[in-house]
Amino acid sequence: MIVFKLNCSDCDYSFEGWFENSKDYNKQIKQGLLTCPSCNSIQVKKGLMSPNVSKKSNTKISKKNKSIASNVKRLKKIIEKEFDYVGEKFTEEAKKIKYGEARERAIYGEASIEQTKELIDEDIDVLPLPFSTKKTN
Question: Are residues 40 and 77 in the same domain?
Fold first, then answer.
């Protein structure tokens, strides 16, 4: 498919036309099949347009993936530095903080889906992290 910017010579209306190829455009013009959607004139000509030259499709995806990976690494460093790791006791510690039984602070750790639902039901904000939180040491 090819897209041409088209202009009507009679009413100066500009619009796009989609064609199978340049030959298809020329064929429709010769047969008088191409008309202006504004005034119905057949005095339609191709307008000036810039070529649609695209980069390799994987270039944008690769850059985006690298950017996302970089942001996740940065987020992980911040969380590991600024938050307290509470591991499997995440649910218990989050409830203690909510109800004033433990000092208020940012925490992270592990919680099952059931535990997460339980925290949400108690209006405790939780957020899944885009990386593994399991500590190995």
Answer: no
Helix, strand or coil for residue 119? helix
Residues 77 and 35 in one domain: no
Residue 16 lies in domain: 2-46
Examine the pLDDT at 57 and tell me if it is beyond 70: no
Domain count, the chain: 2
- β-pair type (44-46, 84-87): unpaired
Tokens of residue 12, six digits: 């100066």
The residues, any chain, with a CB within 8 Å of residue 128's CB and separated by 6 or more, are: 116
Q: Is the model's pLDDT at 83 over the cut of 90? A: yes
For the stretch 92-100, contacts whose Cβ atoms lie closer than 8 Å and that sit 24 or more positions apart, written own/partner, are 94/119, 94/124, 94/126, 95/119, 95/122, 95/124, 98/122, 98/123, 98/124
Contacts of residue 89, Cβ cutoff 8 Å, sequence gap at least 6: 109
pLDDT of residue 60: 65
